[in-house]
């Protein structure tokens, strides 16, 4: 295989991370091994000295992100690529209290588009869950580690990363460090002549920018490939002439129509926001996340970002962390930014997220399973009867916050299908059923 | 630059890690910026979004390991390459007690080969120290963070890694899992036809194997380059036909003379020992270190290893950890394997290290600054009046254990000169002076 082909294979995961939340077209018809059959521990990936040839996963040829090996890799991302820590500091972690409810597994719901009910427990298999925690009233009521995820391991958060970037953005807005009405070029002059130049920070936060940026990875000319090539930490092929980092790529994005009219889920918005955050704080986003949230939250483990060849963290999809720390973060959002006796995030930032985005703009994006939703500060707002909102990443990563039920569900997963449309029918009604179950508990 | 040249530049750090402990020839005459002038924080490496072009360090072109940028990189290794965690688990760390002694900075000693005395404080500048902790009777009596090292950061341990591999080896010997009298081929049949096939495990542990393995990196045909190429995590250049991992490389090492007669400091011995450890425990060495030591030691942070393209940790030089955890490990060795109320390492393993190796075999290696020393279980034994012994890594990494003075000195450093010969004149007499100072304290 040619060097440049190898290089492009290794990009696959970067493009998958950035895939849109739901695309009906992405509903692949391939038959995959089910969750038990593809259990990454039973399959013995990377076990042995050396592992058998057919159990070695590599970055350079993209094998590490091909199903079913991908089920192992999502819990071992930094073994394949350079990464930068989000330090938790050195203090003790704050243990989450537990009040485990055994009957959660038996809670039933009807998957979207189906008529036969399914139990919560069955849904975990269906969605290839690697780990799930349900918090209710601040306590863990359900906890399960599956797949290749260990309690002291970290899992790829994929596009859940975007909601972290958005939360930091909303935080800096609430603090007055970022003015959402300003144009992006005000903060990042390098973006003046790009599509982002005359977009407002608010449009970036809510992804209502209008960009020539296709995330259709079946099209070899799609911009997502150029973006991924720029961000790939491997040395560029010698015939490569494009941008060599995220910061070199973003100024090349061009405009398509008018900003502010329609929701368009494009990863580059998160990277532009990450850039603004880095510029105004004069720190890399991993340091900002560490200092402002991770060190204060009582987390158990450092988190980490993948980085490009110049060390820039991938603010659009590169974050990894432990399951219980994901639960801590979800609980922080549910509790309006308050945890461990301090207001870690300004309440105004959480209020701004909960307020939701422009429903009409969202509708134009055509998510058939997400009727009535909106998008705000890089969070997905369900606008359901419980006021639930969520962070969502490909292959099934989620932080689902239900204020009315005082519930947070966090899940890591490794569904062979990237698009959330594969998991949503077995997830969204399941979350709501658990919420109602918990509300009825009293 | 050609792809393959880029690839070879990126190997430089791997070969530097593996450099011998001291070589008179390696005393380069180049003039370098001194420690203050090369302060990596003042120089502003990798600061900015993006950093200025002349402040960006990259893996692919080797710039990350060129002085003075290297002073930043040693505290940020995983931002340049894939790595695997050594988990500390999720429990609370065990804080080290402090009894800081202010007068240590003023302790004087006479550098080897000089007549004018120097203070301890001055020696830290001279050796480009990035962090130093001195333990006395189990308490921190001196602690300093310099360079780019943060309290919640990790620093490259370079060949100090070997002493960790050796300690695990001695542990498994004490437990009877490894028989040091057995030939290596007994455990690793793949090595039967290599130089290691008829070497005993003891000869590997004490590096008295006789190998065709030059670590002279000024010679482009030296075996160290082939070893580094095999272990480089980057995709191999398309004209590359050699071994593609550590485990593929090691069987190619050929014999040179007779084993057991002379000490020969060759990194591949540590990688062979790492392989044996992995084979008998059926785990990767990062897991062995985690389960048997790191999780029990009350460490504050996860450690990590660099890995090759197939995920094998670099047992000869790839370990990174925090300064206080390095002190915990040194104290564990001083305390004969006992810490936190439990016998973590068998006392017999520490006894075996302290017993020292064959002085005559050591003498043949010709280390002019290390007269009377020996090498055992991948530790350097001074055989001085205090029975001191140490772990040593290029650019100035050290764990110095002085049983008589009940003292441990740990140091991370980034001396522009790799070989320990550059630091030894300002280090070895300094350690002994501190030991005598502490002994006199009572």
Automatic annotation (TrEMBL), chains A, B:
Record's keyword terms, sorted: Hydrolase, Signal
Signal peptide positions (record): 1-26
Amino-acid biosynthesis as UniProt keyword: no
Gene3D superfamilies named among the record's database cross-references: DD-peptidase/beta-lactamase superfamily (3.40.710.10)
Originating organism: Flavobacterium cerinum
Residue ranges constituting the Beta-lactamase-related domain according to the UniProt record: 131-414
Protein name: Class C beta-lactamase-related serine hydrolase
GO MF annotations in UniProt: hydrolase activity
SUPFAM superfamilies assigned: beta-lactamase/transpeptidase-like
């Amino acid at each position: 295989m040619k060097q440049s082909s190898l290089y492009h294979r290794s990009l696959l995961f970067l493009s998958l991370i950035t895939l849109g939340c739901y695309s009906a077209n992405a509903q692949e018809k391939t038959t995959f091994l089910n969750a038990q059959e593809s259990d990454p521990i039973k399959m013995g990936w990377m076990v042995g000295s050396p592992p058998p040839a057919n159990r070695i996963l590599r970055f350079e040829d993209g094998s590490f992100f091909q199903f079913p090996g991908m089920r192992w890799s999502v819990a071992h991302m930094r073994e394949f690529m350079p990464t930068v820590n989000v330090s938790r500091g050195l203090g003790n972690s704050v243990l989450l209290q537990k009040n485990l409810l055994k009957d959660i597994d038996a809670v039933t719901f009807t998957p979207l588009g189906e008529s036969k009910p399914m139990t919560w427990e069955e849904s975990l298999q269906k969605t290839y869950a690697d780990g799930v925690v349900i918090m209710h009233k601040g306590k863990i009521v359900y906890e399960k580690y599956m797949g290749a995820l260990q309690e002291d391991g970290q899992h790829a958060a994929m596009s859940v990363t975007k909601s972290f970037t958005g939360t930091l953005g909303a935080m800096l807005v609430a603090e007055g460090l970022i003015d959402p009405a300003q144009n992006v070029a005000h903060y990042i002059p390098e973006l003046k002549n790009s599509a982002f130049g005359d977009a407002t920070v608010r449009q970036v936060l809510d992804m209502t920018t209008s960009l020539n940026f296709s995330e259709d990875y079946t099209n070899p000319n799609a911009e997502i490939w150029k973006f991924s090539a720029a961000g790939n930490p491997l040395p560029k092929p010698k015939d490569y002439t494009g941008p060599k980092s995220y910061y070199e790529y973003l100024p090349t994005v061009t405009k398509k129509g008018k900003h502010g009219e329609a929701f368009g889920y494009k990863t580059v918005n998160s990277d532009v926001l990450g850039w603004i955050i880095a510029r105004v704080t004069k720190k890399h986003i991993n340091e900002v996340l560490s200092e402002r949230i991770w060190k204060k939250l009582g987390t158990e483990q450092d988190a980490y970002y993948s980085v490009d060849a110049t060390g820039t963290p991938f603010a659009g999809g590169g974050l990894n962390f432990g399951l219980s720390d994901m639960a801590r973060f979800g609980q922080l959002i549910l509790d309006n930014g308050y945890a461990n006796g301090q207001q870690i995030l300004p309440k105004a930032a959480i209020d701004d997220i909960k307020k939701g985005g422009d429903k009409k703009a969202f509708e134009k994006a055509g998510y058939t399973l997400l009727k009535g939703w909106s998008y705000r500060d890089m969070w997905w707002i369900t606008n359901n009867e419980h006021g639930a909102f969520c962070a969502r990443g490909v292959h099934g990563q989620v932080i689902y916050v239900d204020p009315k039920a005082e519930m947070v569900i966090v899940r890591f997963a490794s569904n062979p299908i990237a698009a959330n449309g594969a998991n949503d029918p077995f997830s969204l009604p399941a979350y709501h059923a658990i919420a109602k179950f918990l509300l009825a508990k009293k």
